[in-house]
Amino acid sequence: MKFTIVGTGGTGGTIGAYLAQAGNDVTFIARGKHLEAIREKGLTVHTEHRGDILIRPAQAASMDDCHGMPPDVMFVCVKYYSLEDAIAFAKRTAGPDTLIIPILNVFGTGEVMQQQLPGLTCLDGCMYIVAKIQEPGVIVQPNEMLRIIYGFRTGQDERLRSKAEELEKVLRAADIRGHFSEHIHRDAMQKFAFISPMGAAGLYFDAVSEDFQKEGPVRDMFVGLVREVAAVGAAMGLSFEKDLVITGLKLVDSFQPGFRTSMQRDVLAKGPSEFDGLVTRMVELGKRYQVPVPLYTKISAWGKEHHLSLADGCMD
């Protein structure tokens, strides 16, 4: 299969490296020094469970200079604040037979993309992974968690269903736990019920993984936020297969010491963050479905005071 990875950070770079190592045609979309390093030295992913993965030479380009035939699959792995750039890129480079799968932290991104990309096929997706850029051209994946879930939304045109089913086999052949889901809204909200509470509580308390792993205000906040997401999900008609609190705590307890979320790292670097997508978004959903979300409301107000929110709302 021919793939384009839009956003070669920890998530996109790891996906692309696994796929390329398995013999697939992969183009990495990156920028700045990271792009320069990949072009010059290839892309390296350091792992503890399977050694180093080195893709050299690697097909790498910026959004502006990427040309060629449309890919079979386009994984969109940018931060939410870069979504408009990714949409413009997809509009120019994807074709009618391209599966566009956003792997973002923010719930409902596929539908947002689809509204702006009529005639193309935008699924919804989510991913479980711990990985980050260590230095330009180098990504570190400290554990073997690597799972991609994707699927069509209810009522969506499923003309490319056979390709979506084939993709699951391609992912698994590349040692990625791919799952073509018939309930992507539920599965994406289940992922959001972890990433959003951890990001929100971690940012609010400036907490690292050890703070979540012991009894105290950080862990209590995390649990409370998960319960608020679960309540909104229930109001949306979603039925979760697992207890979201238990699942979230198991994930938190598996992290190595010193871990911070990507939103924390972005804020510490004084750059844009996904605060609106991960926090403000939940306040909006609470209002829409008439579910109280007092903890999210508290953190949202705190974020606005600290100029972390870029807009009154982030998604319709």
Structural class: alpha/beta
Number of helices: 12
How many discrete domains?
2
Helix content: 40-55%
Mean pLDDT score: 94
As for the CATH topology of the largest domain, it is Rossmann fold
Which CATH first-tier class of the largest domain would you pick? Alpha Beta
Percent of residues in beta strands: 15-25%
Tell me the span between the first and last alpha carbons. Answer: 34 Å
Q: Nearest-angstrom radius of gyration? A: 19 Å
- The neighbouring-strand order within the major sheet is 5-2-1-6-7-8
Can you write the helix and strand succession as a string? Answer: EHEHEEEEHEHEEEEEHEHHHHHHH
CATH architecture tag of the largest domain: 3-Layer(aba) Sandwich
Question: Would you identify the regions where 5 or more consecutive residues have pLDDT less than 50?
Answer: 312-316
Short note summarizing the structure:
The protein is α/β, with parallel strands linked by helices and 316 residues long.
What can you tell me about this protein's structure?
- This protein has 316 residues and is α/β, with parallel strands linked by helices.
- It folds into 2 domains: 2-182, NAD(P)-binding Rossmann-like Domain (Rossmann fold, 3-Layer(aba) Sandwich), CATH 3.40.50; 186-305, N-(1-d-carboxylethyl)-l-norvaline Dehydrogenase, domain 2, CATH 1.10.1040.
- The protein has helices spanning 10-21, 32-41, 83-93, 109-116, 161-173, 184-205, 209-212, 217-235, 244-253, 262-268, 275-288, 294-305, and strands at residues 2-6, 25-29, 43-47, 52-55, 59-61, 73-76, 99-102, 121-122, 124-129, 132-135, 138-141, 146-151, 177-180.
- The strands form 3 sheets. The protein has a 6-stranded parallel beta sheet with strand order 5-2-1-6-7-8. Strands 4-3-11-10 form a 4-stranded mixed beta sheet.
- Strand 3 and strand 4 (52-55) form a beta hairpin.
- Helix 6 runs antiparallel to helix 8 (217-235), helix 8 runs antiparallel to helix 9 and helix 11 (275-288) crosses helix 12.
- The longest helix has 22 residues, at 184-205.
- Mean pLDDT is 94; it is low at 312-316.
